[in-house]
Amino acid sequence: ETGVTQSPTHLIKTRGQQVTLRCSSQSGHNTVSWYQQALGQGPQFIFQYYREEENGRGNFPPRFSGLQFPNYSSELNVNALELDDSALYLCASSLGQDRNTEAFFGQGTRLTVV
Amino acid sequence: EDQVTQSPEALRLQEGESSSLNCSYTVSGLRGLFWYRQDPGKGPEFLFTLYSAGEEKEKERLKATLTKKESFLHITAPKPEDSATYLCAPVGGNKLTFGTGTQLKVEL
């Protein structure tokens, strides 16, 4: 059984650029959630995808968008990067769209915007 | 608005010195609460799910308990490898809210 994997592990971008982060879900899971974690804070929910459809969104602007593919892997896209977007981006996979189901996290992508 | 408060923010223990971490929450329609462990620069590692008040779960030196307003993570005879940030996340309705965590350091 493979766990959740994210790529890349680290990334440096310039303000105003666009970035795509990738996540492969754990085998057998059909739901992917994305979180943003600033230094010293808890993860903040961005959105969730269940069977290729967005299934809930947190308080993030539309320049944060995502996709889920038929194999349940997922992408997080962020347009017009701002300095405050610098954070650890976490992907979590689970089985089913219910939020009280255990979710398993990847190691994260550290994004730095300069 | 759902609120989660974890205390203390940081805790330093000697090896073998037991203690408890607190997670207080105000959520609508609690449906469960998760505990995760997070090492620096890594993703959170799942520890426990608690679904109802009075429920307890144990794993090695850790025991999690749940009441209607708070959850505790008890650490018995901790070891240096237990050093990490411990995050709680109650689920209210269909919304998961993480606390800011308790940073635990266990020293020899």
Give a structural overview.
The complex is a heterodimer of chains A (114) and B (108). Chain A has 114 residues and is mainly β. Chain A is built from no helices and 11 strands. In chain A, a hairpin with a 6-residue loop joins strand 4 (31-37) and strand 5. The model of chain A has no long low-confidence stretch (mean pLDDT 94). Chain B has strands at residues 3-7, 10-14, 19-26, 30-38, 45-50, 56-59, 62-66, 70-75, 84-92, 95-96, 102-107. In chain B, strands 2, 4, 5, 9, 10 and 11 form a 6-stranded mixed sheet that branches. The A-B interface holds A 4, 6, 35, 40-45, 56, 88, 90, 92, 98-100, 102-108, 110 and B 4, 31-32, 34, 36, 41-46, 49, 51, 87, 89, 91, 94-101.
List keywords for this structure.
heterodimer, A: 114 residues, mainly beta, 7-stranded mixed sheet, B: 108 residues, 6-stranded mixed sheet, 5-stranded antiparallel sheet, globular
In total, how many beta strands of chain B? 11
Distance between the termini of chain A: 38 Å
Describe the global form of chain A: globular
| Low-pLDDT windows of residues of chain A | none
Helix/strand layout:
The complex is a heterodimer of chains A (114) and B (108).
Chain A: E1 5-7, E2 10-13, E3 19-24, E4 31-37, E5 44-50, E6 53-57, E7 64-68, E8 74-78, E9 87-94, E10 104-105, E11 109-113
Parallel strand pairs in A: 2-11
Antiparallel strand pairs in A: 1-3, 3-8, 4-5, 4-9, 5-6, 7-8, 9-10, 9-11
Chain B: E1 3-7, E2 10-14, E3 19-26, E4 30-38, E5 45-50, E6 56-59, E7 62-66, E8 70-75, E9 84-92, E10 95-96, E11 102-107
Parallel strand pairs in B: 2-11
Antiparallel strand pairs in B: 1-3, 3-8, 4-5, 4-9, 6-7, 7-8, 9-10, 9-11
Give a quick summary of the entry:
The complex is a heterodimer of chains A (about 110) and B (about 110). By secondary structure, chain A is mostly beta strands.
